[in-house]
Amino acid sequence: MREPSVRARQDLLSRTALGVFRLNGQFLSVSEELARPAGLTAAWWQVLGAVLHEPLPVAGIARAMGITRQSVQRIADLLAEKELAEYVPNPAHRRAKLLRPTEAGRAAVARIGPGHASLAARLAEELGDAAFAETVRVLERLSSALDTVSGLPDSGSDSYSGSDLGLGSAPASVPDPAPGPVPPSGPVGA
Question: DSSP characters for 47-61?
């Protein structure tokens, strides 16, 4: 079997990037709709989701989300101002405080749950559970591969999962796809 040409590989990279950019826009739009009834924006939801299970410093949230520390700082400060999150002392670093959700922040994220569950069910119906799980695996693999070839630190090493958005994880009945070759092809910027 012949190896793809340089141009064919460039085309794959371009199509992948354009597809991910479009998907990012779609996820941002859907996330805004899901978050709005809870009084949140997609970006606020994303930052709150990153700290639901444990408080994190702003830099740690930024690494996990793959966005700039400055963007997270701005959102974290807004969340604290709105009393949806609070800064607490960091025993490991005196100056880098930890962000954690308040009860109001947790309640806001919980209000997103029904809409999130409905969207997940509709996507699973459209794709099928196995294909949905495979899509997640391929996107995670692409992210890891891009970290490897770009020479940047692996953003997946301390990334958070969908369950970290406070909405539960995939049901146990969703099978992991069978291992095999994966063609190259979240989350979600702020």
Answer: HHHHTSSS-EEHHHH
